[in-house]
Amino acid sequence: MKIACIGAGYVGGPTMAMIALKCPHIEVVVLDINEERINAWNSDTLPIYEPGLLEVVQAARGRNLFFSTDTSKHISEADIVFVSVNTPTKTSGIGAGKAADLTYWEGAARMIASNSKSSKIIVEKSTVPVKTAEAIGKVLSRNCSDPSVQFEILSNPEFLAEGTAIQDLMKPDRVLIGGSDTPSGRAAIKALKEVYENWIPSERVLTCNLWSAELAKLTANAFLAQRISSINAISALCEETGADVQQVAHAIGTDSRIGNKFLNASVGFGGSCFQKDILNLCYVCETVGLKEVAEYWYQVVSMNDHQKNRFVERVIGSMFNSVKNKKVAIFGFAFKKDTGDTRETPAIDVCKGLIQDGAICAIYDPEVSPEMIFRDMSTPKFEWDKPNYTKSASRFLENVLIGSSAEDAVKGAHAICVLTEWDRFKDYDYKAMYEQMSKPAFVFDGRNILDHDKLREIGFIVYALGKPLDPFLQKVY
Ligand code: UDX
Ligand code: ADP
C-alpha cells in the first residue's frame, strides 16, 4: 500500500511520520509545493519544532517515509491520499473574516483528479467546514478524464495539539473516521481503520458519517475554546472582587462533570485552529439561517479579543496611563509553550496594542525566529495562513526589538510581560533582571506561571491575571 499526503505542515508532517513509524509495510510520501519546507523535512533541522518529532522522522525517513515536491508522480501511485493543506479565513468577498477559503483545498483536488489513473481514497485531514467533502467530490469527479477512476472521500479530523503532537499521535483518545454509508464508503472506512489499527486499539477508532466527522472537529475546538473564554471571563471578575481564578478553577475542576483540563486563565487562546474553526462554525450556522446559534459561538471569539485588550489596558493603566517610549520586555511570542508556532498568537495583538500607545516591545522567545516575529507584526489579520506570506512594511515594526536573550530584552525595560508559558521563564534570576530595569519595575504575568510573592519581595509590582490586585495597582485605578 502507498499513502501520499498533500501538505507538509504541522498536521501532515507529524501525522505521516507516525503512520510511517508504526506501519513499516506502508510507503508514506509527504508532498508540498513549498520546496524549502520539503528540504527542511529532509534535513535534521525540521521546519517545525515539536518535542520528539525528529526521533520519529529519523527512524522512518528513507525506509518508508519520504518527503517530496514531485506531487504528480506520488499521487498517481497512491492508494490513499491525505489532504492536509491550509484553509485560511477568507479576507475578501462573501464571508470575509468568517468563511473558510478553500482555494488550496480545491487546488489539491484538481491536482489529484488530473494525476489519477486508478481509484483512490481521499482523506480530509485539515479542518474544513461541514459539507466540504461534498464539494470536493464534485471537483474530483468532474476533473478526472478516466471514468473508471472512482474517488471515495473520508473525513479523518486531526485532534493533535502542538507541543504534545507525538504523544497525541502515539496514544490518541480517539481516531475519528467519517465516510459515506454506501458499500464503497464502508470499504474505504475499513481500509483507513486498518491503517490506524496497526497501533491504536480498534475500540478507539470511531466511525460515523462524513458530516458528523467534519462537524465533530469544529465542535471539539469550539468547546475547548469555550472553556478558555469562560474561565477568562471569570478571571476579569476575580480581579474586581478579590477572588483568585486559579482557586476557582481548581474548585470547579474537581467536579468530575466539569473536569480539570483547559481551565487555565490566560491572556487569550491562539493557534491555527480555535478562532478559525469557531468563525467557520458561525459562518455555517449563518448560511443555514441560524443567526442566534452563530451569535452564541461568536461570543467565544469576542471574549478572547476582550481578554487581550483587557491585558493591554492593565499594562498601560498600571504604568501611569502611558507607555510611550517605554521599553517593555515580552517573554514569549509563540501561542503556547513547546512550539515555535505563532499563528494567531495573542502576543501579536498584545504587542500591537502596546505599540499603538507608543511602547517599544523587546521580544524574546526561545523558539521563534526574529524573521517570524517581524512577519507576524506586519501581517494583516487572517493573512498568516497564506503560504509564503512575507514581511511587509508596517509602522509596528519601528517599535519592535528582538531580545537575543531574556536578559537582553529586560535591560532598561520598565516592565516584563509574560505571554507564553515556557517552563524556563520560571527559573530566571529575576533579582538580577530587576537591577537592570527602570523603576518602578512591573511584571505582568499573562500566564500565571511565575512565583508572584518572590517577585514582590524583590521589589517588582506584579499583575497576575485573575488574581487579587496589588495595592499599588488598585491605587492607580
Ligand atoms: C488545538 C486542539 O487542542 C487540538 O485538538 C486541535 O487538533 C487543534 O487545536 P492547539 O491549537 O495545538 O490544539 O493547542 P491547545 O493546547 O489546544 O491550545 C490552544 C490555545 O489555548 C493556546 O494558546 C493555549 O495557550 C490556550 N489555552 C489552553 C489556555 O489559554 N488555557 C488553557 O487552559 C488551555
Ligand atoms: P496545518 O497546520 O493544517 O498543517 P500548514 O500551513 O502548516 O497547515 O501546512 C499546510 C501546507 O500545505 C503548507 O506547507 C502549504 O505549502 C501546503 N500546500 C498548500 N496547497 C498545496 C498544494 N496544492 N499542493 C501541495 N502542498 C500544498
UniProtKB/TrEMBL annotation:
InterPro entries (alphabetical): 6-PGluconate_DH-like_C_sf (IPR008927), NAD(P)-bd_dom_sf (IPR036291), UDP-Glc/GDP-Man (IPR017476), UDP-Glc/GDP-Man_DH_C (IPR014027), UDP-Glc/GDP-Man_DH_C_sf (IPR036220), UDP-Glc/GDP-Man_DH_dimer (IPR014026), UDP-Glc/GDP-Man_DH_N (IPR001732), UDPglc_DH_euk (IPR028356)
BP GO annotations: glycosaminoglycan biosynthetic process; UDP-glucuronate biosynthetic process
GO terms under cellular component: nucleus
EC number(s) stated in the UniProt entry for this protein: 1.1.1.22
Catalytic residues identified in the record: 273 (nucleophile)
Transcription regulation as UniProt keyword: no
GO molecular function: NAD binding; UDP-glucose 6-dehydrogenase activity
Pfam families: UDPG_MGDP_dh, UDPG_MGDP_dh_C, UDPG_MGDP_dh_N
Record keywords: NAD, Oxidoreductase
Catalyzed reaction equations: UDP-alpha-D-glucose + 2 NAD(+) + H2O = UDP-alpha-D-glucuronate + 2 NADH + 3 H(+)
Protein's recorded name: UDP-glucose 6-dehydrogenase
Organism annotation: Chlamydomonas eustigma
